[in-house]
Amino acid sequence: MHIEDKRIVVTGGAGFIGSHLVDRLVADNDLLVVDDGSNGEREWVHDDAEFLGGDLTDEAVVADAITAETDLVVHLAASKLVDTDMPRRQFTDNSEITYNVLERMDEVGVEKLVFTSSSTVYGEAPRPTPEDYAPLEPISVYGATKLAEESLISTYAHSHDLQSWVFRFANIVGPRLRGAVIPDFVEKLREDPESLTILGDGRQEKSYMHVSECLDAMVYAVEHADADHNVFNLGTRTTTSVDRIADIVADEMGLDPAYEHTGGDRGWTGDVPRMRLSIEKLAGLGWEPDQSSDDAVRQSARELIEEL
Ligand SMILES: NC(=O)c1ccc[n+]([C@@H]2O[C@H](COP(=O)([O-])OP(=O)(O)OC[C@H]3O[C@@H](n4cnc5c(N)ncnc54)[C@H](O)[C@@H]3O)[C@@H](O)[C@H]2O)c1
Predict the structure, then answer these.
(1) How many whole angstroms from 111 Cα to the centroid of ligand 1?
(2) Which residue's CA is the closest to the ligand 1 atom numbered 1?
(3) Is residue 264 in some structural domain?
């Protein structure tokens, strides 16, 4: 499907990735953002996009947003905390929003859905992890909600008239990122330039991808893959350790702090300490990231030092 002259509903479009997606698509499409403001910022939503404030667990909000005129729904709205103190709420809300979106799309005949899933569906799997790796055994409620939502989407794709593109993201970074390791290090080092406390042993090692490359890859996959249910990993080919992220952030800030590590080999319960996704499936379709994981971290560190 070519993404031009389309009426697109972006759930969670005031958030980090959603707001960048809107910036990318708004010139050539008609966009409606739906967001309850639980995270993200209203001011990040492009002026040329329509905005509907509301909680998508409410079917009436979903009905207002998705109509027979909608061509495509990009569904990003979710609680994304891996260490949430409200796991039941996270599980029920995330799953319910996806159920509401799918039911409403079916009701009014909207047939194209993009969904943002996560590497957390794989749990602690061998690396690089391909899309067809099994068994899928998440180790956090967040990962479990993503797997449950993917299962629902697969059901509608195979038994109803839905075409879906599911993206399992590595760690996406860039401007507007909040509550994650790079902005946390920037803020901690602003408070104390001499020392930095690092959760875990610093050797946790994951793949980071810049949001601009993530959006390039999503658009490419939607425009080039046309199975009923398309599942793609999105990430870079390399990884960056937490200590290396600290080195990069400190270097970009012109600092040389002492590191203090707390805890064991993972940052928090449910954290997958080592993650790298196979991106061969998308590469086979013709798309490769230009950046390494370290490049993505450095670019984002620069952008966030400027922004925060
Ligand atoms: N950032 C990453 O590295 C990453 C990695 C894997 C997957 N993802 C997924 O990508 C999507 C976007 O992530 P993000 O980093 O931009 O997160 P984000 O929190 O910045 O954006 C999510 C948006 O959804 C909105 N939202 C949440 N619950 C809602 C509700 N009930 N009704 C309406 N709006 C609601 C929030 O207000 C927020 O603006 C999420 O689904 C997330 O799970 C992100």
Answers:
(1) 22
(2) 172
(3) yes
